[in-house]
Amino acid sequence: MGSLVGQLVLPPNSGHKIWEDPSFIKWRKRDAHVPLHCHESVEGSLRYWYERNKVSLLVSKTAVWDDDAVAKALDCAAYWVKDLPFVKSLSGTWKFFLASSPVSTPSEFYDSSFRDASWASIPVPSNWQMHGFDRPIYTNVVYPFPLNPPKVPEDNPTGCYRTYFYLPKEWEGRRIFLHFEAVDSAFFAWVNGQPLDIGLSMQVQVSYRRCCSQDSRLPAEFEITDFCHPCGSDKMNCLAVQVMRWCDGSYLEDQDHWWLSGIHRDVLLLAKPKQKEKLEIVNASSYATNPRVQAPVAPNCVSTKKVEKRSNEIDKTTGKENVGVSFLLYVEVKIDCSALNIDNSIETGNWFKIAEDKFITSFTIEAEIFDTGSLYTSNGHANLPSTSVAHLQLTSSVDFYLGFIGYQLKGKLQTPKLWTAEQPNLYTLVVTLKDASGHVVDCESCQIGIRKISKAPKQMLGTNLGLFHASYWNGERDKNHACIISWSLGNESSYGPNHAALAGWVREKDTTRFLHYEGGGARTSSTDIVCPMYSHSMGNSTGNIREYWEAIDNTFGLQGGFIWDWVDQALLKEGADGRKQWAYGGDFEDTPNDLNFCLNGLVWPDRSPHPALHEVKFVYQPIKISIKDGIVKVITNTHFFDTTEALEFQWMMLGDGCELGSGTLSIPTVDPQRSYDIKWDAGPWYTPWCTSDATEMFLTITVKLLGSTRWAEAGHVVSSSQLQLPVKKEIAPHIIDGEHGAFFTQVHDDTIEVMNKNLWEIKLNRETGAIKSWKVDGVLVMSKGILPCFWRAPTDNDKGGEAASYLSRWKSAKLNNLIFMTESCTVLNASDNLLKVAVNYLGLPTGGDKNSSLFKVDLVYSIYGSGDVILECQVKPNPDLPPLPRVGLEFNLDKSMDLIKWYGRGPFECYPDRKAAAHVGVYEQDVGSLHVPYIVPGESSGRADVRWVTFQNKDGCGLYASTYGGSPPMQMNASYYSTAELERATRKEELVKGEDIEVHLDHRHMGVGGDDSWSPSVHDKYLVPAVPYSFSIRLSPVTATTSAHSIYTSQLQKN
Q1: What are the strands, taking DSSP E only, across 749-867?
Q2: Residue 786: is the preceding peptide bond cis (ω within 30°)?
Q3: Minimal CA–CA distance to 964: which of 947, 950, 951?
Q4: Is the pLDDT confidence value at 36 over 60?
Q5: Lowest mean pLDDT: which of 99-103, 377-381, 660-664?
Q6: How far apart are CA 216 and CA 25, in angstroms?
Q7: Averaged over 771-788, what is the pLDDT?
Q8: How far apart (Å, rounded) are the C-alpha atoms in residues 115 and 95?
Q9: Taking the CA atoms of the chain, what radius of gyration do you get in angstroms?
Q10: Which InterPro entries match (predicted)?
């Protein structure tokens, strides 16, 4: 290594490509440690955390995801260093130059005298590809460069950065550190022309005064005291950074992501105490003495141990776990006293005992824990020091538990507020180092949480699961975060001896957490849990998830899984029309690429929710409602810690879509993991149920927050469940009264014309059997239709699986190019109040003949004098066909019929395998609002289980449609975009609205799937097999004075 270090004092173009050297990952880079915040006093530490924890929902609403995000990020960086007297942010606008390779950078650009006025400017943090330099690349599993480890391409874009800073006079006498939160992928850094270290995707470097480091998602920290001008000097310090796009570490960081480069997280200057010696608190850690019942490990440094053994019960007044009288807390602190020349050697023959600790005779270490959160509800000035809840004293023992020799402090905390996912309680830990005279040498602080984890076969109890990839740097930085209860060895990286070795290392370093690795399967020694990705939310997806959660809720040992992903990983890009749009793989002319496989989130890139998020919320909701054997299990509180004290319960009953009754449901507080039952006939809903003559009734129980929290405002819906109630009377099919209302019929050579004065008029094409036009009150309502339809615009899940995909099988069967040939169009009955027309279709592939028929469809129109049209449809598909996309009818309405009202599931998009969250009710939206703007278009905007729907213009004139006879509710879709247009466009900006509204009323519609997007994964019960189908639909003209509800219910026969 000595010869290598000798090379490092030369500029990076010396010939040795450090960024391709796997044996070298850092130089002058400090060891990893937990994040600590330095203050001048305990009071300053408490004030900082007290102010930073004043967060609320309103803060989250200020987040932006467009070009303003850059400025907001800089504001955020400034906010987090505000009131930190010994931290200075260097985030801001830097000078920037992009070279084609590390060896073609401007000569000595790192020198203080270098002139950079002609260089461009770039915000830091950022990725240079997002500011007009180079191009982003998205790949899933394919490397974007030739596979020849550890070599990377000679064409290796290299960013050169420069910025300037002054050191404040107040920092005089302190040590100065340069802290990079993260740089991608490899970098060198210089201060005033002096190299610090190498920062590669696993590195960071500085020549003369150069440093380097690797790992593009973790911090790199260097001491630069000797390289800077004196504090208070009017001389500017120059910081230069050289970042390589590719390095040997890039081979390890290839996993389904955008390849972006640059200083992409904050850069900080830190001032630490120096005095005459090099002395500071550099690490603080925690551990538990009982790995089966432990209550610590928090954002930094705390471990607990119960002093008094007693059974843990839930306090019925507070809903909190009664964990006993007090807990023992342990804090382990590491002091950097390397310059003191103190020999704290280990006693011969006893690895766990220091012969004599000379350091502690001259210095004092103190630790104290504060509960400042208890003051957030108080008025006036907060007395922060008064919130002390525990004093920790130095013990004589030294523990090697977390891998370094540290000083251990111990104290008692009376009945702590445990950290849980439901109530993430945090304390403030302040560690102070004092000299012999009592002067504060260093004062460091952090937030900590105290948690309890119980392990049992097939169970993880205590908090929700937080996985984090394990490495030395990850482990040291994040080991004290209470929210992390499991380490992960990585993702989709196969399995080999390195995984087993890493698993052993992790378990030795930290026995308080689980270990997870999916790649080796459930039977390897490298995982304690089986935690797969069970849903892939790519585009219109996330079907089947209710089935998984029914199994999870009812199967011992199942406790959840992972949905991939939270957010669509798209980038903002200016389109050809000058408007910004969300871009995916290939949009930057990046090759290779994996197209839109990065778009698999539950929310769009701007964090607005996909419709699927409603379904996820439903299966996750903590309050469950059910009915069985006359008992409404009104509350099953699945929380492990919270009672229902802070919640309000409301009920509402609907009959045929109309509200029958509602109110507040008064029930006692329900403890965690407990239920409360109400007899069906004892509930407030029983009277309206008894007195209503509705054909179907639903009871909805909604649970809301009584008061505002940090994460939601009062009234936020926590849970909402709908139960279909027992039917009181048997309902017969719809019966149309044809005795009233005569009409006039004319049969021409090519047209059948039916009309009732000026109320309505229908023209049918005798050759095709389709409706040419339908007018109501003289207004054109239907412009084209009605035809069978079996095709849908393919979704991402339809495309997954290559030759085995649904789309490939559909295309092989030629379902995508169907035309309907009319075999016959026959008038079966013609009277003054009834016209029956039978149409027989053959569904043929384009260019095919009768012998290649894929479908035989018999459609019978029954047109009554009332204006009702009953469509009876018989479908006989070729039995050799694959599962069908849909079975239904398609027609086109005039563009003015854009006001939609329906009785079915909603209000958001839902499909047969993703509809549990969509309650049955009456909803209204315009056609434009029905549309779901998936970044890559496909089948979308459907509404499930529709009983009836109206399509009307602003004057109320339009068309009514409903199921008829014994047909089940239908899947409904209405869009300005035709199926062909949704299939043609590769992005939403390419969509062109049609001249009318395309409507689909489906008897059956295939689920959207969601187990994954690379194999056909729609569950069997949501497939539409190629078998005969029979269904009926009713159409009626409506005007402003017409009630859809009345049409639906007036001719129902009740037995």
Answers
A1: 751-756, 760-765, 771-776, 779-789, 818-830, 834-845, 855-864
A2: yes
A3: 947
A4: yes
A5: 377-381
A6: 11
A7: 94
A8: 11
A9: 35
A10: B-gal_small/dom_5, Bact_Beta-galactosidase, Beta-gal/glucu_dom_sf, Gal_mutarotase_sf_dom, Galactose-bd-like_sf, GH, GH-type_carb-bd, Glyco_hydro_2_AS
Strand partners, 971: 1002
The angle that helices 612-620 and 545-554 make with each other, rounded to 10 degrees, is: 10
Query: Mean of the pLDDT values across residues 1014-1023?
Result: 96
| pLDDT for 725 beyond 50 | yes
Pairing, β 855-864 against β 899-906: unpaired
SS3 at position 881? coil
Q: Place 901 in a pLDDT band, splitting at 50, 70 and 90.
A: very high
Q: How confident is the model at residue 582 (pLDDT cuts 50, 70, 90)?
A: very high
For position 339, what pLDDT does the model report?
Answer: 54
Q: How confident is the model at residue 292 (pLDDT cuts 50, 70, 90)?
A: very low
Q: Is 850 helix (H, G, I), strand (E, B) or coil?
A: helix
Q: How far apart are CA 800 and CA 483, in angstroms?
A: 35
- Which residues 6+ apart lie within 8 Å of 131 measured at CB? 122, 123
Q: Two tokens at 654? A: 């609907």
Measured distance CA(540)–CA(561) in Å, rounded: 20
From CA 541, how far away is CA 535, in angstroms rounded?
Answer: 9
Rounded CA separation 240/165 (Å) = 11
Amino acid identity of 16?
H
- CA distance linking residue 693 with residue 699, whole number of Å: 15
d(CA 160, CA 152): 19
- What is the DSSP code string of 491-506? SS----HHHHHHHHHH
**50 DSSP assignment:** H
pLDDT digits (tens, 9 = 90+) for 692-717: 989 899 999 999 999 998 889 999 99
Whole-angstrom Cα distance, residue 885 to residue 812? 14
In Å, what is the CA distance from 688 to each residue of 662, 664, 897? 9, 15, 36
**Which residues are within 8 A (CB) of 596 and not within 5 positions of it... i.e. 6 or more apart?**
538, 539, 584, 585, 796, 935, 936
Quick check: 679 and 666 in contact, CB under 8 A?
Answer: no
Q: How many whole angstroms separate alpha carbon 484 and alpha carbon 482?
A: 5
Is 967 in contact with 996 (CB distance < 8 Å)? no
**Do the beta carbons of residue 42 and residue 51 sit within 8 Å?**
no
Answer whether 434's CB lies under 8 Å from 55's CB.
no
Three-class SS of residue 370?
strand
- The mean pLDDT of the chain is 86
Angle value at C-alpha 462, between 456 and 463, nearest 5 degrees: 125
Distance CA 125, CA 216 (A): 13
Contact call for residues 390 and 423 (beta carbons, < 8 A):
no
CA separation (Å) from 669 to 312, 672, 673, 858?
20, 10, 12, 59
Q: Answer positive or negative: Cα dihedral of 568, 570, 575, 578.
A: positive
pLDDT confidence of residue 378 = 56
Number of residues assigned to the chain: 1055
CA-to-CA separations, 578 to 265, 573, 574, 604, in angstroms, rounded:
29, 9, 6, 21
Q: Which residue has the tokens 């040992």?
A: 557
DSSP 923: E
Say how many C-beta atoms besides its own lie within 10 A of residue 463's C-beta: 22
Distance CA(176)–CA(167), nearest Å, equals 9
**In DSSP terms, which residues pair with 923 in a beta bridge?**
902
- Angle at CA of residue 429, ends 428 and 431, nearest 5°: 145
Alpha carbon distances (Å) from 1017 to 450, 804, 1014? 42, 11, 8
Q: Which range among 476-485, 604-613, 736-745, 936-945 shows the weakest confidence by mean pLDDT?
A: 736-745
DSSP SS3 for 567: strand
Q: Name residues whose C-beta falls within 8 Å of residue 299's C-beta, 6 or more positions apart in sequence.
A: 426, 446, 447, 448, 449, 480, 481, 482
- Pick the most confident of 29-33, 390-394, 440-444, 891-895: 891-895
Tell me how far apart the alpha carbons of residues 578 and 977 are, in angstroms, rounded to a whole number. 23
- Read off φ and ψ for residue 984, nearest 5 degrees: -70, -45
